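A quick aside before the break. I want you to see a complete sequence-to-structure record at least once, exactly as it would be stored in a machine-readable document. Don't worry about memorizing anything.
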Amino acid sequence: MKILCIVQARMGSERLPKKVIKPILGQPMIIYTLNRLKKSKYIDELVLATSVEKADDPLVNVVKSQGYKIFRGDEKNVLKRFVDTYEKYGGDIIVRITGDCPLIDPIIVDNVITYFLSNDYDYVRLDVPDSFIRGFDVEVFTSETLLKVWEKVSSLEESNRYKEHVTLYIYENPNVFKVGSVKGSEFYSKSYRLSVDTIEDFKVVEAILNHFQDEYVEAKEIVKFLDENSNIADINKDIKQKEV
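That is the input. The structure line, written in tokens, reads:
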């Protein structure tokens, strides 16, 4: 059994352009995401999936320079990009991560993978934002589920929102797919934002990494730090998540 982790990212961002290669302590943000995922005990192959657009060339160059694999596909149809990445690299299980999560925790990722493997689900996600902090987001599904979504979405007249958001069709159709979630304890059920969509989000992540001086700092230590430093946690407290 092969577990393929696909990290989706591109340079375009409405609220913070080029955020994925914006440096934190001298290292591009996307490299934090990839380096931390490399610590997973279960992921067999790790691939960055970006677009074929010239604007994404700087991202590709940064990621290639660190020795990571890359797939370039459709810019707007992210679902097709995932299907094409899977068809090139193969895999029985797909882990989906977004490139705006530089503090993704491999321990949490592995817990979600373990829960998926231990149960009979088509799709499992971390329970964000209800009982887990945004920025630790993990989704796990079978390759068969991915192909089934692609087949169903391709036949829909109004399919753009499903093509742009890879797994949206799955959790909007729990009658079609067996959907599970990994819920967090009260410790993780907080309204902090650790995904980077705005400059305020970026400042929070930068402050955290600057404090610990350790790109592999664990989620529990990050949450403790934010609990004890409301001045940092409050920097992006008024930022609203973009609507799907």
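Two observations worth writing down. The chain has a mean pLDDT of 95. Strands lie at 3-8, 23-24, 27-28, 45-51, 69-73, 93-98, 123-126, 139-142, 179-182. We'll return to this after the break.
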